[in-house]
Amino acid sequence: xxxxxxxxxxxxxxxxxxxxxxxxxxxxxxxxxxxxxxxxxxxxxxxxxxxxxxxxxxxxxxxxxxxxxxxxxxxxxxxxxxxxxxxxxxxxxxxxxxxxxxxxxxxxxxxxxxxxxxxxxxxxxxxxxxxxxxxxxxxxxxxxxxxxxxxxxxxxxxxxxxxxxxxxxxxxxxxxxxxxxxxxxxxxxxxxxxxxxxxxxxxxxxxxxxxxxxxxxxxxxxxxxxxxxxxxxxxxxxxxxxxxxxxxxxxxxxxxxxxxxxxxxxxxxxxxxx
Length: 274
Prior knowledge:
alpha/beta, Conserved hypothetical protein from pyrococcus furiosus pfu- 392566-001, ParB domain, five-stranded mixed beta sheet, two-stranded antiparallel sheet, elongated
């Protein structure tokens, strides 16, 4: 992994006090949600004691600076009305900046599991990384990356409900076992209303899958029966055709209703002349 405070990345050991207006947020910052009360508390602390840990920034092509690490401090400093903030300058590219922002948030556990998944997905998509490469750069296993990315299969409304009710990542992963949207929403509603823990949620989802499995088996049997009936009718029709080709004027009549199929075969009696 690459960290911003390694000597070979710092332009110098000097702390620079930069104007807030010159610093723009990291466009690939994985954290999207910030608690307003938490920011107010940090702003009050900054007003009283100042910023104790410098922000990390890199130079931008327009002459300004792009934030690499320290989004909460930057926002709180703006709330506190500071004109300048202490910064360390690093010499890195956009990919390294995205990686450092993600790693810092993962290490500080500032992200929820959906933000972690989105950060990994962006890292892979923007820089064309494989899951294995992303895992190696972030410092977690490939299977952990795969499990995180699977969470993004949830539609936005389900993600919003999981976040709103503070459900765990294991809740979210368990819900993915239900492929049908209606089943998933019904299970999520049950989990929220009954405040099911992970084990209880998994048992309920197992029961839904078992019930759905039984219905699927019934549908499969019905399809096979229907297929067999069609095969029988085709066979009967073919037999009648063979009789007609042999000179036997056989007749076939079929009547379909909602309850049954009635097939009548008429074969005339033939007198054999010796």
